[in-house]
C-alpha cells in the first residue's frame, strides 16, 4: 500500500462486508476520492498511527478485531500534537443512544445503513472542509510561532530563542558533565558596507553571512542573530581547543568568497570571541560576557580573527574604556 502524503482526497474505508466495500469504494472513486480499503479495525488503527495516513476515515461500527468506536476512542486519546482524523461511522444502529455513544467515543459523524449515496457524499465534503480549515489554522499557528522565534531578515533564530537554546544546552552539559562553547561573531566594518554600498546591500551581506554560518554547523549546533551585525553560535560538546578550531574554520568559510549581488561585490570578514562553560560551570550571562570581551580583543587586535576568553584578556581594560570599539 503506497500512501501519498501530498494527497488531500484520500479516504480510509474500513468495512468487513465485501459487498458494502465494493459499493462504497465505487462511489468514492466516482466522486474523485482516492480510496485506501481495509477489512478490520485493528488494521485501521495500525495504519492511522503512521505519519502520512489518510485524515478522512469512513468506518463500519462493528468490525473484526476492533470496532469503529474503539478506533475513534484511541484516535482522540493520542493528544493534540497528533494530526486530526475526521471519522464517519457507518452502522445499522439507528437509535438516539447509539448516536450519542458514537459521538462520545470520538466519532465526528454517524450514518445509518442503508444510506443515501448523496448524503454520504455531503458528509464527506463537510469532513474535507473541516480538515482543510484545520490545516489552514495549523499553518497560521506555525507561521506565528516561526515569526516569534526567528529573525525576519536572516531566517536564523532570534536572540530570545537562541538564549532559550543556550540555557537548555548549558543545563544538559551540567547534567552530563560536558563542555559547551559559544562564538560571538561580528561582521567587520559593517558600517562602511552600509555607507559605501547602501543598506540593501548591507542586508544582503547579513543574509549571506547567516547562510554561510548555517551551512558550516553540525546538526546539533545552533546559530542565531544576536543583534545588528552580530551573530551567536552555540557548540555543544566543544571545549576551548575544539571551539577555536571550529570557529576558525567558520571564519575562513565566511571570508573565502566575496559576497555578490547583481551589481555589487564586497569581501567580508568576521571577528569572533570564544568562551566555554566546562560542565555547566558558567551561567548564560557570564558566558556571554566572556565571549563579548574576547570579541572586543579580536577587533582590537586587527579583526578577521578568533580570540579565546581567558586570563590573557584584560577585562579591566575594556571596562575602563567604557565603550565598545566602533566599527568604522
Describe this structure in words.
The chain is an alpha/beta fold and 328 residues long. It has two domains: 10-149, Rossmann fold (3-Layer(aba) Sandwich); 159-321, Alpha-Beta Plaits, CATH 3.30.70. 48% of the residues lie in helices and 19% in strands. The protein is built from eleven helices and twelve strands. The chain has a five-stranded parallel β-sheet, with helices on both faces. A five-stranded mixed β-sheet has the order 7-8-6-11-12, with helices on both faces. A two-stranded antiparallel ribbon has the order 9-10. Strand 3, helix 3 and strand 4 form a beta-alpha-beta unit. The protein is elongated, with a radius of gyration of 29 Å. The N and C termini lie far apart (63 Å). The model is unreliable at 1-7 and 312-328 (pLDDT under 50).
CATH architecture of the largest domain: 2-Layer Sandwich
What oligomeric arrangement do these chains adopt? single chain
The 3D shape can be described as: elongated
Specify Rg, calculated over alpha carbons.
Answer: 29 Å
Low-confidence stretches: 1-7, 312-328
Q: Share of helix among residues? A: 40-55%
Strands side by side in the biggest sheet: 2-1-3-4-5
Category by helix and strand content: alpha/beta
Please supply descriptive tags for the structure shown above.
single chain, 328 residues, alpha/beta, Rossmann fold, Alpha-Beta Plaits, 2 domains, five-stranded parallel sheet, five-stranded mixed sheet, 11 helices, 12 strands, 48% helix, disordered N terminus, disordered C terminus
Amino acid at each position: 500500500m503506497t500512501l501519498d502524503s501530498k494527497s488531500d482526497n484520500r479516504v480510509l474505508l474500513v468495512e468487513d462486508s465485501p459487498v458494502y466495500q465494493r459499493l462504497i469504494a465505487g462511489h468514492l472513486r466516482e466522486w474523485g476520492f482516492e480510496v485506501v480499503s481495509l477489512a478490520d479495525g485493528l488494521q485501521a488503527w495500525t495504519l492511522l498511527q503512521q505519519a502520512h495516513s489518510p485524515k478522512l476515515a469512513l468506518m463500519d461500527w462493528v468490525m473484526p478485531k476492533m470496532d469503529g468506536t474503539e478506533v475513534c476512542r484511541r484516535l482522540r486519546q493520542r493528544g493534540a500534537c497528533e494530526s486530526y482524523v475526521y471519522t464517519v461511522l457507518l452502522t445499522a444502529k439507528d437509535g438516539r443512544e447509539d448516536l450519542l455513544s458514537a459521538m462520545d467515543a470520538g466519532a465526528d459523524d454517524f450514518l445509518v445503513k442503508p444510506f443515501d449515496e448523496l448524503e454520504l457524499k455531503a458528509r464527506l465534503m463537510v469532513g474535507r472542509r473541516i480538515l482543510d480549515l484545520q490545516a489552514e489554522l495549523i499553518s497560521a499557528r506555525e507561521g506565528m510561532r516561526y515569526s516569534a522565534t526567528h529573525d525576519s531578515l536572516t531566517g536564523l533564530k532570534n536572540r530570545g530563542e537562541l538564549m532559550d537554546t543556550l540555557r537548555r544546552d548549558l543545563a544538559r552539559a551540567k547534567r552530563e558533565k560536558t563542555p559547551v562553547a559559544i562564538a560571538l561573531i561580528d561582521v567587520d566594518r559593517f558600517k562602511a558596507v552600509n555607507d559605501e554600498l547602501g543598506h540593501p546591500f548591507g542586508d544582503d551581506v547579513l543574509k549571506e553571512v547567516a547562510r554561510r554560518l548555517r551551512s558550516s554547523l553540525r546538526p546539533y549546533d545552533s546559530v542565531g542573530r544576536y543583534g545588528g551585525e552580530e551573530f551567536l553560535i552555540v557548540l555543544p560538546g566543544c571545549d576551548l581547543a575544539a571551539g577555536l578550531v571550529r570557529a576558525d574554520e567558520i571564519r575562513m568559510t565566511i571570508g573565502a568568497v566575496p559576497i555578490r549581488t547583481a551589481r555589487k561585490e564586497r569581501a567580508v570578514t568576521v571577528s569572533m570571541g570564544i568562551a566555554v562553560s566546562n560542565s555547566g560551570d558558567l551561567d548564560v550571562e557570564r558566558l556571554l560576557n566572556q565571549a563579548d570581551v574576547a570579541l572586543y580583543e579580536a577587533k582590537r587586535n586587527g579583526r578577521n580573527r578568533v580570540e579565546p576568553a581567558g586570563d590573557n584578556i584584560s577585562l579591566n581594560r575594556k571596562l575602563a574604556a567604557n565603550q565598545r570599539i566602533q566599527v568604522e
